[in-house]
Amino acid sequence: MENIQLLLFLQENYNKMDKSYKILKDNPHISMLNKMKEEFNKLKKKYINKKNQLESINKKYCLLNDEIEALKKEVKEDDYILYNKCGNDLKMITTLQRDIEKKNKTIEEKENQAMALLEKEEVITNEIASLGKTLEKIRDEFNSYKENADKAQSKVKEEFERCKNEINVIRNKIPLELLKDFDEIKAQKKVAVALLQKNVCTGCKIKVSAITLDEINKGKEIVHCDNCGRILCKANLKDAE
């Protein structure tokens, strides 16, 4: 294999390794995973809040129910006294009737409050069920996405290591003088080898001079772009004609 081809393969592997390194460093999946996690935690907080609301409603309902039962018991006792122990005591009868009427009104109000709580409980129960399903869906999507992201990152890491090993193999095949030239250009411009396509250096996008083109056509092994200094490599024989 000609040295220029080795240099081109070396550059290509450096490009792939740099690309893989950037992906590994930036990890584009992290942003999406964090977004999904943020959405999950936001809904989870809302879910817990709804559960607390439901618990509070249940406590209030139980308290109201106990109060209603206590009032009903008192009304029953008052009724017994009214019809069995008042005799002709009009004052006592009037007082009991007022108490019974007041307690029945309170019972009615508390029963309406209890009914409102039951209706609210039903609404919140449905909301909790809906939030639960949404949370489960997000959790499943998160786990699935993370699994695929981990696999993707693993492949990128494998590509990085493959390029790294390939670079070591290629470098050992290139003469030290050419390797030094390559490294110096790469340190300055990142890309040391550029293809020549239709007499244009793909590194700087400028047409090479007639002298440079003549050197390539004469078969000189290493030719530099007279504009950017990169090592030129013919894409195919026609490009240098």
UniProtKB/TrEMBL annotation:
It comes from the Bacteria. The keyword Coiled coil applies. Keywords: Coiled coil. Residues 33-60, 93-166 form a coiled coil. Residues 27-189 form the CT398-like coiled coil hairpin domain. Residues 200-232 form the C4-type zinc ribbon domain. PANTHER family: PHOSPHOLIPASE C-BETA-2-RELATED, SCAVENGER RECEPTOR CLASS A MEMBER 3. This is Putative zinc ribbon domain protein. It comes from Clostridium liquoris.
